[in-house]
TrEMBL record:
It comes from Caenorhabditis remanei. Belongs to the beta-class carbonic anhydrase family. It comes from the Eukaryota. It catalyses: hydrogencarbonate + H(+) = CO2 + H2O. It is an enzyme of class 4 (lyase). SUPFAM superfamilies: beta-carbonic anhydrase, cab (SSF53056). The keyword Repeat does not apply. Signal peptide: none annotated. The gene is Cre-bca-1. This is Carbonic anhydrase.
Amino acid sequence: MNKILRGVIKYRQTIREDLVKQFEEIKNNPQPTSVMFTCMDSRMLPTRFTQSRVGDMFVVRNAGNMIPEAPTYGTSSEVSVTTEPAALELAVKRGGIRHVVVCGHSDCKAINTLYRLHQCPKEFDPSSPMDNWVRRSGYSSIKRLNERIHRGPSIMKFDSEVAPSQSFEAIIDPMDKLSAEDKLSQVNIFQQTDNPVFICFQINVLQQLVNICSHQILQEHLESGRLHIHGMWFDVYTGDDYLFSKDKKRFVVIDEKTVDKHLSELNARCPLPEDQDGPVAFAKAK
Ligand SMILES: [Zn+2]
């Protein structure tokens, strides 16, 4: 607590005044444009690595940035409420948010646990909330990891039954070289190793995009093109952010050289400008 209390004093002496001004500016009209699901890991500082300001973004954090898919969420006789679908409903249906981002990261302890339990099922501890969380929420990711290992490096399909327009393909092949004409991404973290855990990191983020689409409450928003779901990845060793490119079918670093290509792909996929049909306009339309 010493660090926290001393931090509060430093905050009061430095950024507090500016933050209060920002609170005042958005007091009557906060218009966040995205919700980010990311890991609770202490190295993950999403508002810093996106330089978000007050009111820009909702953030939901848990172990392993997982969003339970609808079939595991509950049944008519037994509803198991978790934060993640509730946060989606709050942000998208009530807040008019048009961009949902799932951001994973390297050296994720939750994914390491998921992978360890997959390798050694006997280590599963029924009394461990963490073991239960990663096994239940990461079940689909492990299924896809097995598929990838069994089939080898090839295009994987991530299909959504509830929102077919959101289906996409991914090349999950860390050892593959980018095509010669592809100057877009000089670096791809997933090329560094063929370690299955690295593949698992990647698959887990992409599987969460499918899990989000499994929730019926979002179907109309997704199929009408008002809501878009994105996969991001943060490398805690280099500080680089990656965005999954549906055109390239892989994660591509976001830097000064690639950002325009990312933006043009997003503009083509998400044609409505933020300020043209944002939360206010959408709320009125509903
Ligand atoms: Zn993590």
